[in-house]
């Protein structure tokens, strides 16, 4: 089975490429700029056609949450039009599309974890553009899986884990928001889940339950508690450590509003595919260990 994933530099694309290494039953090919540019939808079909995929993973996106408030046209061009073009290309090639979306489609006011029946209500441009992308994907290809995830980190790219380790190397104390709740989700786990799903789809041409699913880690925490776990793990492995102090969202104003509650229930995904993410602390420890042991040493500087 050949899987084409959009984007070359993203955390999920990098994790998928790694997860498929050494597997004789799967090959992952990353397709990105300049051949495939979501801001130029006319490039999408030709680039994906050349990759000869059995399944397409739509992972590339505009992810600059605050900058999106100043660049709404570009955010919607990439996350809505571009995502729709990827799904349309998959339909034209006769293959399913697995599209990655986000907790930012919700406003964070629910008391408890969001499930797929909850009505989206994005707070800003980024969330609105991703929601528009979900609509475009569903309209373009009936054989779609939209996977909403949250608080993604990995040994690759820019993310919260690497930021905390970098800051701990420069200072003794780090102030982190304590009133936003969510579920840290390793891109390595997301990649494992996607490969599992891809095998299900490839092995069952009559697969019917396409649609929207939530895919996040197991458990829940706040950003500040997540930071403490990262740095306590780092200290245990001889890495940098700093004291974490709790602050409120109002103490750290940003251009775009963030959901106070980003918890996603993955129960529907577990039932449909028989795959459950590890407990978030376990996955976080694995990524911290990798970074400190130098498997992706240069990435810490990114």
Structure commentary:
- By secondary structure, this protein is an alpha/beta fold.
- It has a single domain (2-301), classed as NAD(P)-binding Rossmann-like Domain (Rossmann fold), CATH 3.40.50.
- Helices cover 38% and strands 16% of the residues.
- It is built from nine helices and twelve strands.
- The strands form four sheets. A six-stranded parallel β-sheet has the order 2-1-3-4-5-10, with helices on both faces. It has a two-stranded parallel ribbon with strand order 6-9.
- Helix 1 crosses helix 6 (187-203) and helix 3 (72-93) packs parallel to helix 4 (125-140).
- The longest helix is centred in the first third of the chain and has 22 residues, at 72-93.
- The two termini are 33 Å apart.
- The model is unreliable at 295-302 (pLDDT under 50).
Short description:
The chain is α/β, with parallel strands linked by helices. Helix content is 38%, strand content 16%. Strands 2-1-3-4-5-10 form a 6-stranded parallel beta sheet, with helices on both faces. It has a two-stranded parallel ribbon with strand order 6-9. Strands 7-12 form a two-stranded parallel sheet.
User: How big a fraction of the residues is strand?
Assistant: 15-25%
Structural class: alpha/beta
Low-confidence stretches: 295-302
- For the biggest β-sheet, the strand order reads 2-1-3-4-5-10
For the biggest sheet, the summary is: 6 strands, parallel
Helix content: 25-40%
Question: At CATH's second level, what is the architecture?
Answer: 3-Layer(aba) Sandwich
Oligomer type: single chain
For the secondary structure, the number of strands is 12
What integer is the average pLDDT? 95
End-to-end distance: 33 Å
| CATH-assigned fold name | Rossmann fold
CATH class descriptor: Alpha Beta
Count of discrete domains? 1
Number of helices: 9
Q: Given the C-alpha coordinates, what overall shape results?
A: globular
Q: How would you name the CATH homologous superfamily?
A: NAD(P)-binding Rossmann-like Domain
Order of helices and strands: EHEHEHEHEEHEEEHEEHEHH
Radius of gyration: 19 Å
